[in-house]
## 1
Amino acid sequence: MSSNIRNICIIAHVDHGKTTLVDFLLKQAGTFQSHEVTSERMMDSDSQERERGITISAKNASFLLGNVKVNVVDTPGHADFGGEVERIMDMVDGAILLVDAVEGPLPQTRFVLQKAIEKKLKIVLCINKVDRPEAVGTNMVAECVDKAFDLFIELGASEEQCDFPIIYACARQGWCTSDVDAIPTFLSGGGERNLKPLFAEILAIPAPTDDPNVELQMLVSNIAYSEYLGNLALGRIKAGTVRKGQEILRHGVNENGKPSVQKFPIFRLLSYEGMKQVEVDQLVAGDIGLIAGSEILEIGDTFSGLNGKALPRISVEEPTMRMIFSINTTPNSGRDGKAIQSRELRQRLLNEVRSNVALRFEDTEVADQFYVLGRGELQFGILIEKMRREGHEFMVGRPNVLMRTDEHGSKLEPIEKMTLDLPEVCAGEVTKMYQQRKGELLAYEAASAIGTAEQRVRLTFEIPTRGMLGTNSMYKTATRGSGLISSESLGYKPHTGTIFHRFTGCLIADRTGRTTEYALAKVQERGVLFIGEAVDVYEGMIIGECAKDNDLNVNPVLPKKLTNMRTTGSDGITTLYGIKKMSLEKCIEWIDDDEWIEVTPKSVRLRKKVLASNMRSVRKIDKV
């Protein structure tokens, strides 16, 4: 029955402890046997999630509290994956909002909370990391609650939503309390160290009111794939009851955006027990499960009975930037992996877009190049790395923001509200960096307002999305790795003019061959090298960053001429100062509009779009 079901999600800013909290909810609810070995961040099952330490896609699990089944969804915290948060909001009736006791509500906190308030969810505020040294012995926890309440009011929450219960927790140690005065006792090792107060608030979240006795309706919120069962549709049963073997309808859209309906029999029904998918005979209204049987699936489709109607499709905020994907046209194509054809690349990108509602796909005027539209550099980087690990070879260009025009024909561009938390000594350098990129400083909050032990400040900028592109590495360098950055979209505003993405040129190989230490020793005097000796290069391949603003064609394969003359001294010794290793993320930040990133399973290279040196200009002014 629906009264024995609770559907909740965990929402928060990135790195505020969502996945860690879900781990302990599952453990303390008795989901695992005593002999079972569990790992940290169990819900982060993808290899990239574990490597990066972030949640990329929403995950489902369940646990039992007495005779009540609790379906829980762990959501991403990074702004680039906001589409994952938006599409699961229809599946739940309540949300646990996690806020870091020191950092307080940040831009992504605002974004996910706004979506939860719009869906009229019951919200439980959980102040996490109350054990952080900066928060111990201060009034930071109380300030954090006040800021969260102010945020509820600002976002237009109802009186009932503003009367939220508050839990104070240390997720990594698996305890919480509803009494703020009891925190010192818990920090000293006392108290009942479990999550019972949070479990009680979860049971207080309203049970689903969906009617199991009417025509079936289910909105497809996610898609999975099984080698044995084929496509799996994940969603919440909005109405009715569905049984194995039953014939139902899929309401979708075709390639032209027109409604389409297909009938299919249900092959299997699956539900969650812990993190496992188990086969069941039926799913009732209010429950979350998976349905196998339909060969064609898209997120946003509706499953209904034979006389049922379609539900409104899932809508998410529009993308703000796009990146161009191309087949690999370099001379080294096919050496490191599978050089896919344009038809295969197009199909691979379409498959990704169908399973991610935050992405869009567009054809270009060139037959072997395609646009993918998304929200941020990290989102693109995750997709590129995913395809690279599948063994594909391809190329990508620099991300570009999507412009619009108003009714008067004036150009508009996306604007972001950017929040920076950094050491005070770095504030001047960082402010100058973002003001050069058309950023406007809105607020400068001193360390006393934030409550951190060291002298830190919080800066708030209003800046074009173009101005933020490619600055992540520079920001980390300027703040010695201790700066935090987050942003939220403010919509579109008038275009702010030209922004120089990079103030340096590049060192470009002017011929094909294998690099020599002798040649690179001469080249390194003109800039910073990206590659070392004994590396195969081709004409047009970028091998380093030039110290000046113009490009420079160089010969990195020049051998040292051998003679039979004997000499003394060190004239035969060459030394390379050091190589700047360019990861995929650094390449995405660094490249300009006239350059490609060549992605292969074994390496990531940079190249000019025009390879022949006599066919392109090296002057920066010619590229603006």
## 2
Amino acid sequence: MKPEQPLTHFQIVYHQFKKNPIGIGAFWVLLIFSLIGLYAPFFASSKPLLVIYDKKIYFPLFRYLFYSGFYTKRVDLFYNLLMLTLPITVTGYFLLKKWASFLLTPFIWSMLSIQIIVFVILALGVVSHPEGNKGLTAAKQEHLMEKINLREDPLLMDIHALPSWDFELRYSSDYAKLNLLLRYRMRKKQHEKLSPYAKLYHLETGKMMPTLFYVDQINTNQEIHRLNSLIEKIQKEAEQAKQTLPQKISAYLPSSMAMLMAKKELEQAKKHFDETVNLSGIPKEELRSIKTRLSIAKTTYSAIEKEGLPSRLALIKAKGIVQKWEYAKQKRDYLLKRRAWLEEEQNKISFIFLPLLRPFHWEDDAGGQQSINKYIPWWTRTRVNRKDLVSALIFGIRISLVVGVTAVLISLMIGIPVGTIAGYFAGKTDLILFRIIEVWEAMPTFFMLLLIIAIAQNKSIFLVIGILGIFGWTGFGRFIRAEVLKQRQLPYVLACKSLGYSHGHIMFSHVLPNAIPPILTLLPFSMMVAITSEAGLSFLGLGEEGSPSWGVLMDEGRSVFPGEGYLLWPPAILLTILLISIALVGDGIRDALDPKLRTF
């Protein structure tokens, strides 16, 4: 039998942590938060994961995953990329650890580099619109140019037709058509789901519940009714004007030709005058002749313009009424055909796999008015800006986690080297660095956040993260310094010096690994401070505008309190649960690292 290998320090801590049921429960809660935040688009998005439309398979969510026009916040682009790179990294880690451990470090660094480089590229907006509907724009321009009879006088141009719905369908991409159908279908389903609550709304207000689908239908009906009324109102006058239009054009044509000739003469005279007036040595008689020519050209143009004014005004009036009538008919036909197409084509969607919780992206207009919120369940309510509440809560997890993790990483990158150097060299070096830590620690992080944001006039989440990291490293520096001061007195440090190792090698390859484990107890509580600071800043109205941060959501709830106070408690409860989970995990880690509490 092989002798039992002794447990490593990590294994001992892990087994001790497993004996803490509260810590384990909090860890699972924290893991659930992290997974929901990481894979937020799978829980809330207006883009389905899979659609079968007209016997073709589409993957709308994956097409829009890296498009900055849909995910406008860079934090979302970072997480969307992490959705792909993290599983690859974790899988590669376990495989390489078992079969090729020497490749483990290069693999981790290469995946980290890929994450950063690709994220920077995505943040620059290099991914084009997934609809790829440039052909429609080009076709519209070409259609317009074909219908316009190019003449120098705009009044003599033909009345061009507006692009019809059939024309748009002909040049629209498959994803452009699919997006129209998905929006129509999802709004219709939302209307149907809220129909049981619409009865109570109608009884109390005497109005129909203004869901997105209902509002769209009402607006379309009103526009069609307006256009029909306009068509009937001006039909007789437009038909008469259309019959007399050729005669009015004939009457105006001589005046137009004369005006064009006079205009060219005026432009040439003005150009000649501008070229010669500033030249020296021009004879006075020649200059007087140029001025006379310019004056005559202006007088002639004015006279011709005045003479042709009656025929011009008559043509403008006739053409205007005809154009107004034609455009009204074309717009009406466009709306009717579009509605009929949507009703018919939606039946061709044979399968649709929606996100698990909400069919809205947190930046989408979830519809209706705030007045309907008190009649529907809280998970279907909208925010003050009419965006979906649950979707914003889900994507808000990303903000809290990225602030907590990134701010702590920045603090570690500053605090660990400073504390290690101060503790290892001691003496004057320790005295100088420790005084710096004390001075830096005297500056309160939250008030520095307020000050720098007020000076910079910038509420970017990345600025908040940077400030939290730069002003929050002193605790790590103090802790590492104290641990290194203990470690430097141990025999293995003297042995390393005797072997001729450099100070840098001893500090970061031998002393620091032994000083790091105790600092793990500080990480959860530092994350709590960072998350709370960001949420508090956003709650005060100094967070990133248009962000799904829970602090922003609480600020929106506060702004309409108590009338719509129900918007305040969901983000507040989630933030409390997250902070308590982190605190309990931190307590569990602290107990697991304490040798006095170990049972083996």
## 3
Amino acid sequence: MLYKCPPLSDTIVFSDNARLAARLSCVLAKPRAYLPVIDGPRMQRPDREAEVIHRTNAVARSRARRVFLAGLTDKSADALTQKLPRGRCIRVHEADDLDGFAAAGMALGPPLIWGRDRIGIGLLQALRGRRPIVFEDRASPDGHVPPKRDHLVVCEEGDELAQVVAANYAYALGAGLFLIQETPKDHVEQIMERFYSVYESRDQSPSQALCELRDELRGIAADVPVPKDGSITFISDGLPFGFAFPEVPSTHLFSYPGLGIATLHGFAAEQQGTRGVQVATLVNPETTAAPEIDAAAKILSQQRLFVRVYQGQGADVTSVSEMIELFPYDLLIIATHCGDVSGHHWTYDFTDSEGLPRKLVVDIALGIGRTEDEDLLHVTQFMRFVALDGVPWNDREQKAKLYVGTAMTDFMDLTRDSNDEKLRPTIKDTVSRVIGSAAMKMHDNNFIALPRSLANESTPIVINNACVSWHRLASNFMFGGARGYVGTLFPISTTEAEEVLLRALGKHHGKMLPHAFWSAQREAYGDGPRRPYVVAGVYPQRIRATVADVPAYITSELNRGRDAWTRYRDHAGPHEAQRKRTVDAHVRFFERQLEWFQRRW
């Protein structure tokens, strides 16, 4: 069992070129330290400014003195350079000689010659041997890298930059690395759908269905060398492989998007001298029985955490959504009903920017919250693409033959609120279930969580103690800035929700998050196939309480948030009407919170 989080390197790498990032890793990585490797900002996205900010914030958290921009487009590299301190960025291209970037006095051995695939295995071998790596156009050898300690990293092969992150992660932990084949996206969705509807089958019992899912996931993972009395980190595109390996504690990281940032968040929060977990917010809308919330509040208070509870009428959509994005908490626990909801089934006909006629079908679920204006509601929209030009969007084989071109980006531009000639649906219908909507029932309405950033950038741990709260929400919360997330794969009873959570928080307090929930589930479920809870985030992190003047910290963070949003409102405009209302609401949120804390303390 690993007990210590590795320190962070004083260097950070931004790269969209996996092989160049691997070569840089060989000269920059240091033994027993983690070298962060992060993809560049996606400048084609409408929220490209946020893409840049998330990455510059990551540099600040890492406290890196050198920032390598390796193989980025000029647009991405320029955007980062403009936001970072002058003289800190170093641009690197594929043809550059990298030996000069090695630390003074560090001698590298002869190069490791590697093939065009399985680059994570080659990189970890090169890192352990203190050798540079050279890639050739040939197949790489089979095999894996065994762990030096008792932790194994299992990574899907599809995303090569994810393999580079996985190799650096494994190197810092003394872990082994094992690659498995990438699972097609449509197969992932089918498996997750079976978890969601495990109680709906009339042909088999839930236990039989779970056994089949466990066996199928183990088959996909194929021959993983499970470390005896060890643990595993799975890096994949969303499959909960840990469910299939109940014999060891496990955690998960998502290969895309944001793997590098999520990994950095987890390690940065566990560095020596960091705050740990001081502020907990608990949500109980009282739409379903949730006795664990009161018990959890008591346990956390005894552990000297500052606890704030949103309960009953206080847990409405607007209050909870504002808190999740803006209030500076370190731990969030939610207990409510969660599941996909009914919605709209709309068809859009339009001509894309290439002059091609397109027909796009989407499913839409809505979350509705109150605002301070009684004549105005705040609407959050979750959209799922169903079909383009008659081709199902989740059919990998048919979609491979479909020319998508600019259709999707054009559609998003045409339906944006700021568009004066906003595209309208030509056919309107309804659907009984919008797959993936994962709405959480608040006291007044459904909450569709699509967080852009969490907890005023405080990278919290989120425990969503609700039914089927892993689906979509795990990746969304991690992308939004959570350093850890715990959710469930299928419906759970009130009794087990209380039992597992309170065991993890109480009896197993102080253990790493994967160990705490693994131990709690072993005690609750014995040898049965039922293991609903799945953990995401880096392996060595825990709910680590530290003593401080917490009200003073909260007040400081609220002041920082208010000032930042006020500057944005007053100097970054002009804003479209809806955006301006949102920014004004954020400023008022911080002002209300500051007034309450200053009055109380």
